[in-house]
Amino acid sequence: MSSDSKNCYLTTHADHNEDCAYSSGLKLSKDVFDATMVQGTEFSYECLNVVKGYRNFYSVDCESSQDIYFSKNLVGCNDCIGCVNLRHKSYYIFNEPYSKEEYTKKFTEYHFGSRKNVEVFRKKAEDFWSHYPSKYYHGSHNVNVSGDYIYESKNALYSYEMLGVEDCKYCQFLSTKPSRDCYDYTEWGQGAELIYEAVVVGDSVNNVRFAYTVYSSHNIEYSAHSHGSHDLFGCIGFKQGEYCILNKQYSKEEYRSLHDKIIKQMSALPYTDKNGRVYEYGEFFPLDLIPFGYNETAEEFFPMGKEKALLQGYHWKEKDQQEYRQSSYKVPDDINDVQDDILEALLACEKCGRNYRLIQMELNFYRKAGIPIPSKCYDCRHYERVRYRSPLFASGKLCSKCGKNIMSNIPEHITTILYCEECYQKEII
Ligand SMILES: [Zn+2]
Ligand SMILES: [Zn+2]
């Protein structure tokens, strides 16, 4: 889902953006490419979990910083390369201070217009970051929360990527505030209340259950692709509908009576799928109705592989050989060597072989930013970026400083040095 945006290309779970591409979880941003979980940011590339950034490149977990490269967990910094855990610093390289003149000289020497140089710095920076502690979860301004990437929330438990949420559990991607009193709900928010078992529901929604892509509506059950409606049951594609069942209009009284009758029947005669799963009233739609392959959606967060997914009744999208044609075009290492004819070329990902193309807006951006053209396809770039994103689930760990028990989603490949809130506040802030 993507809404209220202008001139954006291949952006998902993204709203209120302009001139952005190849991103997910992107909000209120402009001129941002290859980003995941980024808010209020401009002119940035290859960022993960960045807020209010300007000219942030190849960086993660940064806030209110500008002109930063290969950096992690910076707040209020500018002109930093390869830094980690800094606050309000300028002209730092690998956490060491430089004069403005020295910094500028070094920056020119490093020449980040070359893909080889970028790859060398990326590896060097990731190794450098791994020697510094991380807080046990990403988030701030919270009371009683568990999960990861949680901000300005209260009583948000076992949840992930939350902003301005209250009294919610088992929710993900509610990154447009506010949301309250929700369970088992994935994506959106923006004035969501009493939502249960729903996907992509938001913008003034109340009492929505077992539904997807519903907005500005209330009292909705088992419905999809509807807005500006209330009291719908089993409906699809409605604008300003009321008291409808299976897209048929009833009087308020008829609706109530039929609604109660159907609910009773759904429990008395439930649908059973070919794997023997029973769907009574109270369950989300059956798996048979999923229009996407498991590997196009859930595999990213709940990996199980093709064999298991098929056994469990999910679809699996096979490779389309048309998307893997040979390419003779060699993407130049240096942005300065790239000619306009690249826009006509069919490129092949150096990792998986899948074809991709460049669009004009993207080429203009790389040239203006002085960064290299990617040699990998959108998907490979995405998966490389999200290596630095926590998975959905937490496990029990110990604070590396005081030994206190903590629950953390952050995996060991990101860092083995995790601090509890108190130790982190003492040492980092
Ligand atoms: Zn690829
Ligand atoms: Zn501690």
TrEMBL record:
<protein>
    <submittedName>
        <fullName>Uncharacterized protein</fullName>
    </submittedName>
</protein>
